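Ticket #4471: structure export looks truncated?
Reporter: QA, pipeline team
Priority: medium

Steps to reproduce: submit the single chain below to the structure queue and open the exported record.
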Amino acid sequence: MTPKIGTISIERFRAFRELKIEGLGRVNLITGCNNTGKSSMLEALRLLASGGSPAVIAEIIRYREEDMGESDEGGFQISSLFNGFPRWSDTLETLAVIAKGVERPTTLTLSFGWYTEKRNPETGERTFLPAEQRSSGEFDWVRLLVVGLGSGKKVYPLEHLRRVAEGYDLPDLGDEARMPCVFVSPYGGEGTAALGALWDKVALSELEKDVVQALQIIDPHISAVSMVGDEGPRRSRIAMARSEKLSRRVPLRTFGDGMNRLFGIAISLVNARNGLLLIDEFENGMHYSVQLKVWRTIFHLAQWLDVQVFATSHSWDAIEAFQQAAAETPEEGTLVRLVRKGEDIIPTVLHKDELKVAVRQRIEAR
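Actual output as written to the record:
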């Protein structure tokens, strides 16, 4: 099976004025110093995979605390996604994420546009027309976020994105525009309640044993996992584990942060079937001694489930373990090193044979 994305181009998104990476593999490790765009690359992939979903846009902005809890009618908060922020401009250039090697539409664009708005006095339905298409009559001018995916286009009033952030559902370009994609944040293992929905999709299926086998990397005595509790403001779901050394179930967190981190990665991986898995700061919470086994599991399941993986790290231990795991599999493991040069970020791509040389000679690859 070939990787879903062979080449990714990111234009005018966050720190990337223009970034193009060719030769991506089944499992990709993105490295680089702080502020070189590692997390931004994952965000760009999330936007592309979601088809520019307003919910994903709002989540990305909120995670970086760029929403500031204020109205965004002028688009200032969303402009944080555009290259050049925080310098404000009413004429931000269109940002684009372009992927080659996938079957679905592969070009996502975000831009701002001024539209005229007309409301149906009976139904309250809102109609938007680009300024050049407006007809005579009384219209209100409104600034919209324009999301383009392939040949499709959708416009969103900026206050709608604020409503999405507050929990309201809004229509997007449709499920046909989406690629399965699961994101694991740097601290994605600390809140197992958030993993309940992912667990429900694999519980009592053949994939459940893969999650348990992954946890056995840290503790081989774990024999089963379940989620207890239910959704609601007063109750949360807790991951429970059964161990052959214990007489009763205990919270998974009892086994430490590394186990919780591994649970988050494993359950996200099996839920990313036929899509993308994005892991920010892979090594968080995991001792260097287990990282090789974790990478081996990721390579194995990624091949079996047809998942393309993008992970970030600035740990030499993670790179060494990644290189060794990549050398053991026919699937392509690729390391992408991002380096800032002036206003640009330059990628260097190392495939597994080149990476083997770099690790052996201790060439800086972080």
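Status: closed, not a bug. The export was complete when the record was re-opened. Leaving a note from the reviewer for reference: The chain has nine helices and 16 strands.
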